[in-house]
Amino acid sequence: MTGPDPGAGGAEGAVTFGDRWTYDWAARKKPAIHPLRTPAGHELTRMQPADHPWHRALWFAVKYVNDENFWEEVPPYGVQRHTEPPTVTGPDAAGRTSLEGTLRWTRPDQVSTAFEEQRRLTHVPLGDAYAIDLDTTLTPTEDTTIRSEPFTTWGGYGGISLRGRADWHDTRLLLADGSTHERVIGVPSPWCDLSGPIGEGDADVGGIAILDHPGNPRHPVPWYGSTRAATYGDEGWSNFLNAAFLFHEPMDLRAGERLRLRHRIVVHDASWDVDRVGAAWDEWVNEAKSATAGRRLRRG
């Protein structure tokens, strides 16, 4: 894979990581990653489907911030925008490249700020797969309650979300206990993997595993997801997955109190079993522990 190319392919306001993924940081409503492809080149994400046009491939958002909507893009709603182009660093000796920037969550009044967000995305080579590490810190400008839709049997609406292409078919959701599902509603797990055949036939298989960092609040996170055909009233497979940290209850934050959330998104070809995804989660957690220990030694 080649290094990051700001504005590749004529997409002004985007950073493209070779043929793997593109981050549209300049989107007017909220930034997103699309397209996202497996190492073999199979595109997995879906942008703004007719059934839910606010679903933006791979993106981060919450539903309500002090009862103001930052999820659906139906007026009145809030937006998330980078204040300036993100800074790109790398690749380092391990081939990792990061982009980092500040976002402002602007309320529906189009003037005042609800959150300032520091966001870092890191591309991580993993041999026959790769990962995108999302590290985001939200700081509210006033005392704030964030919450999801109250009718939580059909929505969790908070955190990192994925919408897959409609012809990614016969997909399944795999949890860390080894169970597989067509739908999960509030089930806690340190990770969830969505995999299945892509396009016509069954020859090409791809998957995305979203890993929840053990330092995140409410870890292991409750998951809200559905693979089933026509779940949303549209043709094809729904392939929606959300790390729904607000699923069971709202979260209160004081003005200036920082909320940090970390996730690793592992993109792979073939269908991974519970041992393979579990090993990827263990590797990530051990990396984080080693990095923390190293920082403590340097400070000491």
Give a description of the structure.
The protein has 300 residues and is mostly beta strands. It has a single domain, classed as Beta-galactosidase, Chain A, domain 5. The protein is built from one helix and 23 strands. The strands form four sheets. Strands 8, 9, 10, 11, 12, 15, 16, 18, 19 and 23 form a ten-stranded antiparallel beta sheet that branches. A five-stranded antiparallel beta sheet has the order 5-14-21-20-17, with no helix packed on it. The longest helix has 26 residues. It is globular, with a radius of gyration of 18 Å. The chain starts with a strand and ends with a helix.
Quick structural gist:
It contains 1 helix and 23 strands.
What are the defining features of this structure?
43% strand; Beta-galactosidase, Chain A, domain 5; 10-stranded antiparallel sheet; Methane oxygenase PmoA; mainly beta; 1 helix; DUF6807; single chain; 300 residues; 5-stranded antiparallel sheet
